[in-house]
Structure formats: C-alpha cells, structure tokens
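Lab notebook page, bench 4
Experiment: in silico fold of construct C2
Operator: M.H.
Input chain length: 89 residues
Purpose: comparison with the prior construct
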Amino acid sequence: MERKGRYIPNRLRKYRILAGYSQKDVAIILGMKSTSRISKWEQGTALPSLEYLLKLSILYHVLCDELYYNHRVKYREELAELLKYKYKN
C-alpha cells in the first residue's frame, strides 16, 4: 500500500504487539479516552509528545530511539557528516 502525505516511520505497533497490548489497552494505561491518537502514531501520521514517547518506551520496555529507529539512523548520519565537515576545515 502506497502512503500519501506525511509519513513518520516507526516501530510502535511492533513493540506494542510484542508487549502483548492492544491499542485499547495502551489508551487506557495512558489515560486516553480513545485509541485514535495511538492509531495515528502507529500509522506514522502523527508524533507522540515527549511525555507519551517516554511512557511508551517504559511500557514497551525499549529505548525511545528504538521506537523511531529510522530517525535515529538518519540523524546519526546527518550529524556525522556535519561533524566531519566542521572539523575538516
């Protein structure tokens, strides 16, 4: 399925399932009235706030950067290039 519009790759669904939770379970634990935000986060159409990201990492027993692994790799590469350029001159 081709995605249109903004898409933020993540591993939220993977780790939720590995932890044995449904979207409804996570919503209840986080004090939300519905699963719509959880769904948007997992679909990559929205980002959780820092507070929710930290809570999800605790709930799923993984580090925050593991939930958004593609971003970690991308930013690490970007920073490595910037640092290489900065200290080269």
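Observations: Residues 14 and 67 are 9 Å apart (CA to CA). The helical segments are 12-19, 23-29, 36-43, 50-60, 64-67, 69-88.
Next step: discuss at group meeting.
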